[in-house]
């Protein structure tokens, strides 16, 4: 599953002690500083060198979504209410966000940087990783390249658009290197600098260590960077609860892992309904159970979904299908609510057309799957509220805990020799109690993964 670039062998835990020459500089990571505010300064030269905040709307009753470094000097940060910002820094420029423009400038920036280096991965509108060539792996050469990139941006796009650059053997380390000096930094992190150069890192500042993982790390007694560094890949996998932990370990130790191409484009289940379950209310409970099962698999793979499709086959003939999009999520509550809304829309229309439909089968799929850090630029939730993201990750943590308990119960039942498909005492939602769980005990996944194109939107 893992392969270090330009190496034929699979990295192993022993690699942690192999010479750092095995892990040369390979990535350049750019993190644009106060990006939205910088684009405003770029487009309005009179704002350069001045305190600027960007707000989601032209309203005094909102908060900054970006603050220029000049504004930060007044203690103004992302999230500072406009009223407070005006009080802290009279005369501050308050600019309503122009997301189209930020995306357009992002494209110009990527095009300019690609004149120097091949793009590896876009992380967000203001962060991206690029690959260094073999000849650029020498630190002096890599720094020279980074300076050329910065100069190219200043001359060909605009001097207001500054970025902090990190150079390192893996993308994760290059990102951490870029974080070290802001704004306009240029930091080299070599394998031999580790772990001491990062020993002061706050664990939750490391991408991949969210609130849920931090909780598990603390339970395992890992409360500082050196302890995190000293984990074994297997331990990391156990703590993360997925292969993501192992991948994190390799990235942290300077091995870039080539991810298997995501074979899954969707996760879901389908079920033919017996006569007993063909009424809309009963069919809905089956659809919800299928969705909960799909969501549990989604979390198991460490994936996030951004849309849900629901289709129903009707008796004696006909069918109906629909899909909805949402912000990338692992939250079963959000999925269930989306499903219920879709179901309600379907029923309202059916009721207008005649008697309650009889439902012969339901299919539920989660689509738009991604791993953290793989969000494509056109899917960015530019307006997403930080509070919402926090609720999402808290809920995802809760569902992960439920998944773990259910998996544990499954294992215990299996040890006790319970035949598969036997009713099991699982943790589930009270609203799902109308469904005997053994109904879902049989194999209900498709035997192949259909292509997304096979689904009509
Ligand atoms: Mg940034």
TrEMBL record:
Signal peptide: none annotated. Transmembrane segments: none annotated. GO terms for cellular component: cytosol. It is an enzyme of class 2 (transferase). One of its GO terms (molecular function) is damaged DNA binding. It holds the Pfam family IMS. Monomer. Poorly processive, error-prone DNA polymerase involved in untargeted mutagenesis. Copies undamaged DNA at stalled replication forks, which arise in vivo from mismatched or misaligned primer ends. These misaligned primers can be extended by PolIV. Exhibits no 3'-5' exonuclease (proofreading) activity. May be involved in translesional synthesis, in conjunction with the beta clamp from PolIII. Belongs to the DNA polymerase type-Y family. This is DNA-directed DNA polymerase. The lineage of its organism: Bacteria, Pseudomonadati, Pseudomonadota, Alphaproteobacteria, Parvularculales.
């Amino acid at each position: 599953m893992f392969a270090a670039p330009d190496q034929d062998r699979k990295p192993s835990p022993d690699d942690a002690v192999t010479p750092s020459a095995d892990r040369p500089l390979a990535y350049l990571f750019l993190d644009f500083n106060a990006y939205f505010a910088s684009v405003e300064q770029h487009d309005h030269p009179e704002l350069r060198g001045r305190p600027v905040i960007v707000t989601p709307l032209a309203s005094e009753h909102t908060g900054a979504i970006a603050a220029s470094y000049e504004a930060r000097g007044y203690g103004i940060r992302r999230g500072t209410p406009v009223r407070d910002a005006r009080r802290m820094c009279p005369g501050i420029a308050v600019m309503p966000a122009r997301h189209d423009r930020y995306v357009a400038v992002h494209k110009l920036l990527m095009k300019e940087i690609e004149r120097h280096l091949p793009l590896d991965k876009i992380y967000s509108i203001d962060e991206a990783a690029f690959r260094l060539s073999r000849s650029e792996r020498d630190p002096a050469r890599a720094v020279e390249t980074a300076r050329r990139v910065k100069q190219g941006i200043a001359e060909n796009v605009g001097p207001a658009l500054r970025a902090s650059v990190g150079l390192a053997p893996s993308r994760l380390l290059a990102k951490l290197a870029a974080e070290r000096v802001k704004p306009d930094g240029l930091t080299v992190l070599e394998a031999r600098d580790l772990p001491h150069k990062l020993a002061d890192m706050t664990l939750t500042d490391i991408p991949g260590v969210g609130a849920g993982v931090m909780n598990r790390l603390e339970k395992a007694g890992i409360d500082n960077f050196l302890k995190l560094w000293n984990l074994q890949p297997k331990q990391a996998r156990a703590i993360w609860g997925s292969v993501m932990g192992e991948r994190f370990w390799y990235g942290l130790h300077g091995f870039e892992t080539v991810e298997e191409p995501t074979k899954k484009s969707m996760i879901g289940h389908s079920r033919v309904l017996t006569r007993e379950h063909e009424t809309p209310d009963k069919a809905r409970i089956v659809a919800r159970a299928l969705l909960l099962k799909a969501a549990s698999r989604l979390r198991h793979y460490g994936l996030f979904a951004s849309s849900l499709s629901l289709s129903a086959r009707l008796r004696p003939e006909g069918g109906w299908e629909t899909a909805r999009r949402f912000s990338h999520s692992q939250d079963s509550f959000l999925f269930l609510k989306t499903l219920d809304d879709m179901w309600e829309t379907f029923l309202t229309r059916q009721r207008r057309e005649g008697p309650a439909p009889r439902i012969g089968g339901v299919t539920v799929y989660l689509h738009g799957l991604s791993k953290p850090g793989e969000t494509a630029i056109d899917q960015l939730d530019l307006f997403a509220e930080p509070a919402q993201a926090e609720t999402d990750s808290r809920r995802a943590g809760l569902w992960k805990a439920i998944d773990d308990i259910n998996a544990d119960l499954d294992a215990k039942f299996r040890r006790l020799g319970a035949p598969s498909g036997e009713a099991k005492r699982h943790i589930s939602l009270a609203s799902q109690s109308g469904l005997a769980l053994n109904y879902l005990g049989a194999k209900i996944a498709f035997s192949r993964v259909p292509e997304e194109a096979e689904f009509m939107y």
